[in-house]
Specification:
This protein is α/β, with parallel strands linked by helices. The protein is built from twelve helices and eight strands. Helix content is 46%, strand content 21%. Helix 11 packs antiparallel against helix 12.
Length: 292
């Protein structure tokens, strides 16, 4: 307990002001939701994980930094690919990092370590890492240019940044479908353009501009389309999705909430198949090295 309090205090003192609000969310309700649904949420993007890791081309002796590592699945996968090296996962959520450490212990993966930190300002070392990776965890920086410049300094000159980021909302059926079901008369509540959020790096022109300003060379941006998985059955998917749309449901009266949940259930049932509840999604796979 004392260690957890100390780690939290150190994190608080090292949060960039531009990330203060997002840190409170991830080290609070948002992080709690991801902990409670760890396996399901890892499963939801599982079809992207193999191409993401393949693009990273992690050597057996590589040192890897995983930014926004969450419950640690990608950090552990990196550590498994680098048995003579290691992987460090950083995240803002103390509870998610607890899950990650438990997973590492269960797998006997002692070359994976986890640190609660704001990757925009934390002491990452200079030229320490062969790879900096992030699977849907790099879209929430308050100052993305400063954050990616900081990550560029942590890379070795021949190192590689590998990101998986969502394409624009318009290309992602899953979130559109959920909010169309529960709030058809409202726009999807996403962050405005340029603000931290799941689609903040969805436009390739902005991606290129941010990375160039941060000191990276011309990135390779490949489009991927895979189904996202929300559970093996409708009941499981409904419980998971309610966590995503709960803010809208909270604004409704009892009758409105019942109608919204019925509409959501119908949408989930329409997307139920032999492999579970699947919705279309699209992401960018981004690779870039430091500018020479």
């Amino acid at each position: 307990m004392a260690t957890a309090r100390k780690e939290r205090a150190e994190l608080t003192s090292l949060i960039d002001p531009s990330n203060a609000d997002i840190a409170r969310g991830w080290d609070g309700p948002s992080g709690d939701y991801w902990v409670q649904n760890a396996d399901l949420l890892d499963g939801s993007v599982a079809r992207y994980t193999e191409p993401f890791l393949a693009a990273a081309a992690i050597a057996p002796d590589a040192q890897v930094l995983d930014v926004g590592c969450g419950n640690g699945e990608t950090t552990l996968a990196a550590a498994e690919r680098a048995p003579a090296g290691g992987a460090v996962g950083v995240d803002l959520s103390a509870r998610m990092l607890d899950v990650a450490r438990r997973r590492a212990a269960l797998r006997g993966r002692d070359n994976a370590t986890f640190v609660q930190a704001d990757a925009q300002v934390a002491d990452l070392g200079a030229g320490r890492f062969d790879r900096v990776i992030s699977r849907t965890g790099a879209m929430f920086f308050g100052d993305p240019v400063a954050a990616f410049a900081h990550l560029a300094r942590a890379l070795r000159p021949d190192g590689l940044l590998v990101l998986l980021v969502w394409q624009p909302l318009s290309e992602n059926e899953w979130l559109n479908a959920f909010f169309q079901a529960v709030a058809p008369d409202r726009p999807v509540p996403v962050s405005p353009p340029g603000a931290p959020g799941p689609f903040s790096l969805g436009e390739p022109a902005r991606l290129r501009a941010v990375l160039a300003a941060a000191g990276f060379g011309e990135p390779r941006i490949a489009g991927l389309r895979e189904p996202t998985w929300f559970g093996p059955d409708v009941a499981t998917a409904e419980a998971l999705v309610v966590g995503l749309v709960g803010g809208v449901l909270a604004d409704l009266d009892d009758a409105g909430r019942a109608a919204a949940l019925a509409a959501l259930r119908a949408t989930l049932e329409a997307h139920l198949g032999p492999d579970g509840v699947l919705f279309g999604s699209a992401a960018w796979l981004v690779t870039a090295g430091p500018a020479r």
